[in-house]
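Board notes (copied after class):
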Amino acid sequence: MEDLRTQLEELKKRLEVLEESIDPVDELMLSIKARLKKRLEGGALPGIDEEKAAKTLKALANPDRIRILKMLTEGPMGFKEIKETLGVESPTVSHHLKLLVKTGMVKKGEKYELSSNGRLFLRLLEIITALEEVEE
């Protein structure tokens, strides 16, 4: 139990360091910080749901799906707009959008729009990409 408390304290310290290094204008990073802080108040982060994690990573494992997320940062888009911008066939676009909606990264209404989770995952991809570039 003491080991768990030590780990929790270490995570809180890391969160404080992260908080100090975050540009206050970066709303998404502040969102990550708030979500982590809330989870840590409960004592620990929940375990990984392997099925959910795999589905989320699968949704991000295609360049066209990432392009769709990036396109939606500019604002909501209709199916036809997305299809024409990507330059792929309708069944392919439909498949991509279905996965993105199912994982909660995109919301479907009159048009498709990026959810807050979609913005968060895009930001995480930017961070991962930046880290990979540094390590090479």
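Comment from the instructor: The CA atoms of residues 37 and 74 lie 29 Å apart. Helices lie at 2-21, 27-41, 50-60, 63-72, 79-86, 90-102, 116-135.
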